[in-house]
Design brief:
The chain is an alpha+beta fold and 391 residues long. The chain is 26% helix and 30% strand.
Length: 391
């Protein structure tokens, strides 16, 4: 079966008022539109043409089509006009242990201070759809961070001294920056960064100034000073595994993740910041962000290879001159349009749906194959091998 999916944009305040509307070719509403969710996540399931939410549709009709009761992934359009919170996600064992611990403690799952809302991990893949997509991801190598902090002058001495400690632990540095005892020092470091100039770190300091305007004296700004600033070009992806700090800053992207809502925040947010638990799950090893170029899987098809088996994401680009493209269907898949118009035909049902930018269709496993035609670009999300075998 082919099941068209719709959903309303989520109006988080960091969302763009124009990017999703521009992609879909409609007039902006004037409100921020941050994310559109395509999936059955209970937080905001997609809607099928008959008005049912996708979680209900899967429970009532999915089994007959070979679809699982729950999708192991969540696909999104994400449009950021300003920074999201700095955050990291737990590994699978950490999520299971944390969920059990909070369940036993009787903390309501919707409580503001609840950390583990389910038992799943949440690896993420973001692919730039705008010309550029900017993010902070992972902790920068120590020598470069030392140079950056040295450029801030004497006001940043409390941070500089900690980075110069032999065998320094960035976990300890971040724990200090997020502690109540460091508030005065944090303000001094931020003030120094706001007025500093550096040819080498001009972009990073520009980000700090923007963050200070939005989140005055937030300790997360010091955390951001130690993170990699990443600019993805259109069609490039970035993978964020468990424990890696990240914060999307600006741009439009297609995001695919394991279906989870477990988030540990590290600043740039009015929401609960559980510092001790964040430091437990944190991967404090410095290193470059995991930027991914799609691997050519077949003519017109690029795959974003990720080291997890929860999901796979393919990007398909077609023109009218290319004729038809046949793609296998391995598990319940979602086809999301980003450019032009692409016709999706089911090989078993003979159903036909046209996917336009911002539109999506669920393809059930009983189709076995789909046939794509048209002039445009779509992303095809599906479960990875282990997720399919456990469904």
């Amino acid at each position: 079966m082919l099941v068209p999916l719709t959903n309303e944009p989520r109006d988080y305040e960091w969302g763009s008022a124009t990017l999703i509307a521009g992609l879909a070719g409609r007039v902006p509403t004037g409100r921020p539109e941050a994310e559109v969710w395509f999936g059955d996540h209970p937080g905001d399931p997609s809607v099928t043409p008959d008005g049912r939410t996708l979680d209900v549709w899967l429970a009532e009709e999915g089994r007959a089509t070979g679809a699982p009761e729950h999708l192991p992934y969540l696909l999104k359009l994400l449009a950021a006009a300003s920074a999201l919170s700095i955050q990291a996600h737990p590994s699978q064992p950490q999520a299971q242990a944390g969920f059990a611990r909070e369940e036993a403690a009787g903390i309501p799952r919707d409580a503001d201070d609840r950390i583990y809302r389910d038992e799943n991990h949440k690896p993420e893949l973001i692919v730039a759809v705008s010309d550029e997509f900017r993010a902070l991801a992972g902790l920068r190598d120590l020598e470069t961070s030392r140079r950056l902090v040295a450029a801030l002058g004497s006001g940043a001495r409390p941070l500089a001294e900690r980075l110069l400690v032999p065998d320094v632990s960035l976990r300890d540095v971040l724990g200090w920056a997020l502690s109540s005892e460091a508030r005065d020092d944090v303000r001094d470091v931020i003030a120094a960064a706001v007025v500093a100039t550096s040819d080498e770190f001009d972009d990073e300091l520009s980000v700090v100034r923007t963050l200070q305007q939005r989140f005055p004296d937030d300790p997360g700004i010091v955390v951001a000073l130690l993170m990699n600033l990443v600019t993805l070009r259109r069609g490039e992806g970035m993978f964020v595994p468990a424990g890696v700090l990240h914060a999307y800053l600006e741009g439009l992207g297609v995001e695919l993740m394991a279906a989870s809502d477990n988030v540990l925040r590290g600043g740039l947010t009015p929401k609960h910041v559980a510092v001790e638990e964040l430091l437990v799950v944190l991967d404090a090893a410095p290193g470059a962000a995991s930027v991914i170029q799609p691997r050519v899987l077949a003519p017109h098809v690029g795959r974003f290879d990720v080291p997890v088996s929860d999901f796979v994401l393919d990007r398909v680009t077609l023109s009218d001159a290319d004729g038809e493209l046949v793609r296998p269907v391995r598990g319940a898949s979602i086809v999301l349009g980003t450019v032009g118009a692409v016709t999706v035909s089911g090989s078993a049902s003979r159903a036909v749906e046209t996917v336009v930018p911002g539109g999506a269709v669920l393809v059930t496993p009983d189709e076995n194959e789909i046939i794509l035609r048209g002039d445009g670009e779509v992303f095809m999300a599906a479960a990875g091998e282990s997720a399919r075998s456990s469904a």
